[in-house]
Amino acid sequence: MKYTITFSPEAREDYEVLPAYVRAAVRDGIDKHLQHGPVRESKSRIKRLRGLEKPEYRLRVGDVRVFYDVRDEAVEVLGIVSKKNAEEWLKRRGVKS
Questions:
Q1: Which residues contact 8 (CB under 8 A, 6 or more apart)?
Q2: pLDDT greater than 80 at residue 83
Q3: Which residues, 6+ apart, have CB-to-CB distance to 21 below 8 Å?
Q4: Could you give the 3-state DSSP secondary structure of residue 30?
Q5: pTM, rounded to two decimals
Q6: Domains of the chain, each with CATH number or no CATH
């Protein structure tokens, strides 16, 4: 099953300010991992976030973290942040369950 990928306005802004080579890596990671297996957890790539209602998952692409939710056959990318800013982003934008 192929999932539809959408970006929140904040995620779109995050994506557009990335350097071109990082944007390409993030785009490839999203295409490879989120279109066909967004809930398939792995040791290093995809992680289900515990204690949070939103975002549900994190995709690691190098030093960038892509936070997203999965609903039915759609993936909504909520934020794209650097590893060093990920914890702060989760504190500001994450919704605890």
A1: 76, 77, 78, 79
A2: yes
A3: none
A4: helix
A5: 0.94
A6: 4-96 (3.30.2310.20)
